[in-house]
Design goal:
With 1456 residues, the chain is mainly β. Helices cover 13% and strands 33% of the residues. The strands form 24 sheets. An eight-stranded parallel β-sheet has the order 7-8-13-6-15-17-18-32, with helices on both faces. It starts with a helix and ends in a 14-residue tail after the last helix.
Length: 1456
């Protein structure tokens, strides 16, 4: 049988790392250091995919060698001097303190690395017996290369001594005014920062932008070499900025990088001619990497931007200008209307000035992303190396990939080496905030990278004032205050839209200039025939067209009067006027937006807009950027305005101009898209690191018509300046801050600069909590959203404290550093398995390794799974002489912070250590507790430093599973070991119980078990069985288990079924989400909170070595077909089949008195599953723990069986067995037994010996009560008791008929609402007394009448019965009667008036006699007054004798 390594190699060899930024992430599985989890039993959903590639198909792989790269080489090789900054004792650095990549030592070491890489390449080619294509080489921040290898080939190469690891190249995605001033940059520029530093705007600092390139021009360039006729350079990147600053190229005049410089041919790239006009002294380099250096833009071979790093996406240009774009004056921009592909419109408002955070810095743009935003990780690594070589000071990486532990991610490790080389890197946290906690991607989750979240800034506007001119002279109010972001308008005629809008009569026309691409999205039905000019998708033709329309009733179209929708008013009615429009209405996209109203009126020639709220609209007022002067008024003032318009004449209005003002009410709100911590792989360091403005950021675009035609029109980036949202926009704010910090504090290391920014970040960021009466309600944002807080560079440059961490310190904190294979999880408790195919390769932990991320000397404190108290130590370096006081603040309740010092005085350059403890002291109301440690200098000129603290206290513990062997359909079990930290609001969030659906089938043993794809495609899927699976929304748990199989090894895979057809197609193997592939066949997959969707379950018959065609023991005749039984449970909504009983208030560390109750109809052997999440407050989901409830229906706890049946004595014994009580509590039974009519109880006693063979000495009588044929008694079965049996002896001497003697046993446990009936599989049939019935010719007779009484056999009981009759007269005057087989006849005496006669019969079947059967005859007469009662008695007697009939018919003979 194969071991689990083989299995996981099978899976991992098929896995291709996802290239999608917003690939699914989940935090419920094990914390593994890779994006793809290999846990065989509880798999996380961020597994990438199972590849469809054949063994011969290659992919790009990083091959990273063990010898350190240039930035990390500390010496140790004879003849080669150290090259790292620290190893060389800073002798191998530039004047700016960066790594000197061009020194003699560096050149020699690079030559040494080149030789080692060639040796490794030769080894690979020798091992694989083929030439290997090397696409890129690295030697600065990583030592290695990118090679084209097949998935299977990588397994052959892992064991080479020189190879550190091999990792498949993945793809990342790009993540998409007043920002600089809101971040304090303006104060750094002027040197007027609050705490006093020399001013700088980034002069002399080089900012590297790794993105989609950069736009040098906003217009097409016919010939880049025709200097005289070039269009103007992009104003954000001109040599001389809008503030007059003339940039200096730090490399020298005319010395450029990339496209702008001559590039000699390399082994992979041809020679490139210099195109210097793409650059200038500001933009000193444009470097396309890889295939992006070969792009043909929009399929046009004559496009001058072909084969350059020019941006045709817009993302890179926007981020570059945000970080370091020039000061640009008098900026107008365009905005997008509506939710779909609608018009762009020119905003009316003019921004006096915008700029990047470091507007005087130089820029080098590295193009590592495609026009559609897919970013090759190997290109990014090459760009990092180039940046280190090009003298870049800070790097912006507004890109993220899948979540991976940064210690095991080539790109993240490259950033760490770059940090050691002196570069500071900012990376976006990602835009996956909608996924909730732990949604931050890599590399933004690396502690040596500044991961940045996004919040709103404080761009606000002054109040708008509407001034009334004309109208009634005595009108009370002539000025109204409103909102808007537009220019001013002098007194202008005003009209109400409702008075002039169309009512459905006549026609109107208007003329548009638009593209054929707009036709599909054009809104109106026209009555003319359109003829459009020829056009192609690649070259859309702009054209003018006049549309003639029937007038539509505006109210019918838009749902309100005065809506100001498109085509609702004639141009003649509003041209040159201010139009009053009602807010609200509807259009094809839903609500008719405010901006569309302004746009529609502007298109008709209106001069201004007044938007008024109505009774049916929201009452909020908005600073909308309309395309014409506008003001937004509230409902009350709108009514007054209309009242004024109805009176007098010559109505005009004036609107004042909008000006930018700081609005703190709208500032500091975290973007809903901003990804959240904690890290998916370690809870012991805080991410994101910090936040910055990333909502509504106005920055450079790429110009009209300059984007790639494949980019959706909705992504409006092809304009000069535009707004964009995203952590991509917040990240360059921090990058620009690092440029300012580098200029202000050049001696600070990147780690120190990051600590200064984090220590001095502003608190008070918030999130939207509610929306009430048109107003947003805010609450404090936690640190998993904000990181340390809002980055404020004006404080950071003057920070009085900094912290230092080193390359070795980061590496020592690797939480997986002691795990063999670098990323291995045990799938069966003993055998390792590895998704990256490192199999048996063991990583030796770095020197000084401790594996505790919380020990990194970071400017934040985080700890997961903190048991009542956790602690950290931080070492600070003082930059100024100061005395510091320590204090604390809290966002949440229940935590108390303490430190080892309350006050300390230090001098500049001195270090001190601060020990911080977090203690659980109160009730927890949230999963994580948040607070801050503040260090406040007595010198108020020094900024306050603070450390954010995030702690996940262990709020208690629960058993992981509660396994219930249910002996009845209704029951209760005590749950032990539930302990909490104490709460007054213990909360249980639960599902119901859901029975497994059982599937049975057959599947052939696989002929190619080690390759799923080939096994399926080459063997017609014979080794597979597919079962459709639907997972609804909010499913709590998925359980799949193999119940039975004849296969020696069966595996389970679950993949996404995108077409929902319930079948598995080969191309769908790329998205397998869960699996269980342990050795053997007892697979069990148990997964919490599976994602909604259509899936398939793949049952794969791995079999054994005899069915593997690659094995020497392969036997084609032994491809056996095995059967299987599979159980599938999807646990969804809550219902009453599972309930919890527990107190609401519990004490700290006291065991909770918790019971689980169930009520579910089940058969023996059925399985059912549920889930219970336990928390200390209703707002928290499961901070105490999650309990998986696993219920198997066992045999009944009360069982009835036949002990004996002694027919001669007419005695039957029954055992009532009570199962052992292992529930942890006493079981109180209320018992009820219904006996067969006519039987009697001889004995009810417990059998002390419990062996079923009782003696008198063993019996313990049971006290019971009897009413009719029903016995009742109570029984307490103590906790821990063994099984106990009660013996019930029944005498059935008086029972009649052929009848089942089994009593009905009904038991109710613990006063439940529902009891259970216990029975016997086979009935206990006995031949009891025969049954006879009597009937008379008349029952009420006259004196002298002749009466015949006839006996009939109701039940002879036995075959061939020998029937006998024995008659007797019991009452009345004695009469003589004659007998005739089954009857008697007599004559009533004449003097028997009013008398009663009673006769009896004892019948016999030859074996047993019947019970006495009687009949009454009444005689009429004066004193006869009971005739009716006699008849009633007769009727009753007949009913009584006929009410019990035999259960099994037998032949009778009634003629004896």
């Amino acid at each position: 049988m194969k071991n689990v390594i083989t299995k996981m190699t099978l899976l991992a060899a098929s896995i291709a790392v996802s290239a999608i930024t917003w690939a699914e992430s989940n935090n419920d599985g094990p914390k593994l250091p890779f994006a793809t989890s290999t846990h065989a039993e509880r798999q996380t959903t961020d597994i990438a995919s199972i590849s469809r590639t054949k063994q011969s198909l290659t992919n790009e792989y990083f091959v990273i060698l063990k010898q350190p790269p240039l930035a990390l080489y500390d010496g140790g090789i004879d003849g080669l001097a150290p090259t790292s900054r620290l190893g060389s004792k800073h002798s191998n650095t530039t004047a700016k303190g960066l790594l000197n990549t061009k020194s003699l030592a560096s050149k020699r070491y690079r030559k040494h690395l080149a030789n080692k890489q060639l040796e490794a390449q030769n080894h690979i080619e020798s091992r694989l017996k083929r030439k290997v294509t090397i696409n890129r080489r690295y030697d600065t921040v990583l030592n290695g290369f990118v090679a084209e290898l097949s998935d299977n080939e990588t397994r052959l190469l892992q064991q080479h001594d020189a190879i550190k690891f091999i990792e498949k190249v993945g793809f990342d995605q790009i993540d998409t005014d007043s920002g600089p001033s809101y971040s304090g940059a303006d104060k750094v520029w002027s040197g007027t920062a609050e705490h006093g530093t020399a001013g700088n705007m980034g002069e002399g600092i080089v900012v590297g932008i790794l993105d989609s390139g950069i736009a040098s021009f906003l217009e097409p360039v016919d010939d880049i070499f025709d200097t005289e006729n070039l269009p103007p350079f992009h104003p954000s990147f001109t040599d001389i900025g809008g503030d007059g600053f003339d940039h200096t190229n730090p490399k020298g005049k005319g010395v450029y990088i990339g496209d702008c410089a001559y590039t000699p041919a390399t082994e992979n790239e041809p020679e490139r001619v210099a195109e210097p006009n793409w650059c200038n002294d500001k933009l000193i380099g444009i470097v396309p990497i890889g295939v992006y250096a070969k792009d043909i833009i929009n399929g046009d071979n004559n496009e001058s931007r072909n084969r350059t790093g020019q941006d045709i996406n817009g993302h890179g240009t926007h981020t570059a200008s945000t970080a370091a774009g020039n000061v640009v004056k008098n900026v107008k921009t365009e905005s997008q209307l509506g939710k779909g592909l609608r018009h762009l419109y020119q905003e009316d408002f003019t921004y006096e000035q915008i700029s990047g955070v470091a507007p005087h810095a130089n820029i080098i743009a590295y193009q590592v992303c495609s026009p559609l935003g897919s970013c090759n990780q190997s290109y990014a690594l090459e760009a990092i190396e180039r940046a280190a070589d090009d003298g870049v000071d800070v790097i912006n990486y507004s890109i993220s990939g899948v979540a991976t532990s940064p210690w095991y991610h080539a790109q993240a490790l490259g950033f760490l080496a770059a940090r050691k080389a002196g570069l500071n890197i900012s990376a976006s946290a990602g835009n996956s905030g909608a996924e909730g906690a732990s949604s931050i991607r890599t590399p933004g989750n690396a502690p040596w990278v500044t991961g940045v979240g996004a919040n709103s800034h404080n761009r606000g506007f002054n109040d708008k004032v509407l001034t009334l001119v004309g109208g009634p002279a005595d009108f009370a109010e002539t000025e109204y205050i409103g909102k808007g972001a537009t220019s001013a308008l002098p007194a202008t005629e005003v009209v109400f839209a409702s008075d002039v809008e169309f009512t459905g009569e006549g026609t109107h026309s208007h003329t548009h200039i638009h593209s054929i691409l707009d036709e599909e999205k054009y809104y109106h039905e026209s009555d003319d025939a359109h003829s459009y000019p020829a056009s192609t998708l690649d070259n859309p033709v702009a054209y003018e067209h006049t549309h003639v329309h029937n007038n539509m009733d505006a109210y019918d179209v838009y749902g309100i009067q005065g809506a100001c929708g498109e085509d609702s008013i004639s141009a003649e009615a509003v041209a040159g006027k201010v139009v009053i429009c009602n807010r609200g209405g509807r259009d094809t996209e839903g609500t008719l937006s405010r901006l569309i109203k302004g746009y529609a009126m502007h298109q008709l020639g209106a001069s201004g807009l007044i938007l008024i709220n109505t009774l049916d609209s929201s009452e909020t007022l908005n600073n909308d950027h309309h395309t014409l002067p506008a003001i937004h008024l509230n409902r009350k003032d709108g009514r007054k305005l209309l009242a004024w318009l109805d009176q007098g004449a010559d109505h005009k209005v004036a609107i004042n101009a909008s000006n930018l003002v700081a609005d703190d009410e709208i500032a500091g709100v975290m973007g809903g898209f901003s990804a959240q911590g904690p890290d998916s792989f370690s809870l012991d360091y805080l991410i994101p690191a910090i936040s910055a403005p990333g909502v509504g950021i106005l920055a450079a675009g790429i110009g009209k018509g300059m984007k790639d035609y494949r980019i959706s029109k909705a992504a409006q980036s092809d304009i000069d300046f535009l707004y964009m949202d995203g952590t991509s926009m917040s990240t360059p704010h921090v990058t620009g801050m690092y440029a300012l910090l580098k200029a202000a504090q050049p001696e600070w290391t990147p780690a120190q600069a990051q600590s200064a920014l984090m220590l001095t970040a502003a608190s008070g960021l918030k999130v939207i909590d509610d929306y009430v009466d048109g107003e947003y309600i805010y609450k404090d944002a936690n640190f998993h959203l904000t990181g340390s807080g809002l980055a404020r560079v004006d404080r950071a440059v003057a920070s009085g404290l900094i912290l230092t961490e080193t390359f070795d310190g980061y590496m020592a904190a690797d939480p997986f550093g002691d795990v063999p294979g670098m990323a291995i999880v045990d799938t069966d408790g003993t055998t390792p398995a590895d998704p990256n195919l490192r199999e048996e390769k063991t990583r030796v932990p770095a020197a000084g390794w401790h594996g505790k991320p919380e020990r990194m000397n970071l400017a934040s404190l985080s700890k997961g799974a903190c048991d009542y108290q956790c602690s950290w130590t931080r070492t600070f370096t003082a930059t100024k002489d100061a005395t510091w006081n320590v204090s604390f603040s809290y966002l949440t309740e229940g935590m108390e912070l303490t430190t080892n010092i309350e006050q300390i005085s230090v001098r500049a350059g001195e270090d001190f250590t601060l020990d911080v403890s977090a203690n659980l002291v109160g009730e927890l109301k949230s999963v994580w507790s948040f607070g801050r440690v503040h260090l406040t200098a007595t010198d108020s000129d020094i900024p306050v430093a603070s450390l954010p603290v995030a702690v996940e206290f262990v709020a208690g513990s629960t058993p992981k599973d509660v396994n219930i062997s249910a002996h009845r359909d209704v029951g209760t079990v005590v749950v032990e070991d539930v302990i909490t930290v104490g709460t007054e609001d213990l909360t249980f969030t639960k599902s119901g119980l859901f029975k497994s659906e059982v599937f049975v089938g057959e599947v052939q043993r696989a002929a190619n078990p080690t390759n799923l794809y080939l096994d399926y495609t080459k063997n017609d899927g014979l080794g597979f069985h597919v079962i459709p699976l639907a997972i609804p929304a909010l499913a709590g748990r998925l359980v799949v288990e193999v119940l039975e199989t004849s296969s020696p090894d069966l595996d389970i895979y679950i993949g996404v079924d995108p077409d929902g057809d319930g079948q598995m197609h080969p191309n769908e193997m790329t998205d397998i989400r869960f699996w269980s592939i342990k050795p053997g066949a007892n697979e069990f997959l148990d997964y919490e909170q599976p994602r909604i969707g259509q899936y398939w379950i793949l049952v794969h018959n791995f079999g054994d070595r005899f069915n593997d065609f690659q094995d020497d023991a392969f036997d084609p005749a032994n491809l056996i077909i095995d059967d299987f039984k599979l159980a599938v449970s999807v646990i969804t909504e809550d219902n009453d089949s599972l309930t919890v009983t527990a107190p609401k208030e519990v004490s700290r560390e006291a065991e909770v008195a918790m019971k689980i109750n169930w009520e579910l109809d089940m058969d023996e052997g059925d399985k059912a599953y549920g889930i219970i999440k336990v928390s200390t407050a209703e707002a928290i989901l499961d901070n105490v723990g999650t309990i998986n409830v696993n219920l198997t229906r066992a045999s009944d706890d009360v069982q009835l069986s036949l002990a004996s049946n002694e027919t001669e004595q007419t005695l039957a014994g029954f055992n009532i067995r009570f199962a052992e009580n292992n529930t942890g509590q006493d079981r109180q039974y209320q018992m009820s037994v219904d006996l067969v009519a006519g039987s009697s109880v001889e004995l009810l006693a417990f059998n002390a010996s419990n062996n079923g063979q009782a003696t008198n000495a063993d019996l313990q009588d049971v006290e019971f009560s009897q009413q009719g044929d029903t016995l009742t008694w109570s029984y307490n079965h103590p906790s821990g008791s063994a099984a106990k049996t009660a013996l019930l002896m029944v005498n059935y001497a008086d029972v009649q008929g052929y009848i089942d003697l089994t009593p009905t046993v009904y038991s109710v446990l613990d006063n439940a609402d529902k009891g259970e009936i216990s029975g016997i599989a086979e009935p206990v049939m006995v031949y009891a007394r025969p049954v006879f019935v009597l009937a008379a010719t008349e029952q009420l007779v006259d004196p002298g009448s002749t009466v015949t009484i006839v006996a009939s056999v109701e039940d002879a009981v036995i075959d061939n019965a020998q029937i006998r009759y024995q008659w007797s007269q019991l009452q009345g005057p004695k009469v003589a009667f004659s007998k005739d087989q089954n009857s008697i006849t007599f004559t009533v005496p004449d003097n028997a008036d009013g008398k009663h006669f009673e006769f009896s019969l004892i019948g016999s079947n030859g074996v047993l006699e019947s019970k006495i059967t009687t009949i009454n005859i009444s005689v009429t007469g004066e004193d006869v007054n009971a005739g009716s009662s006699s008849l009633s008695m007769l009727f009753f007697t007949i009913i009584a004798c006929c009410s019990r009939r035999k259960l099994m018919p037998i032949a009778k003979n009634n003629n004896q």
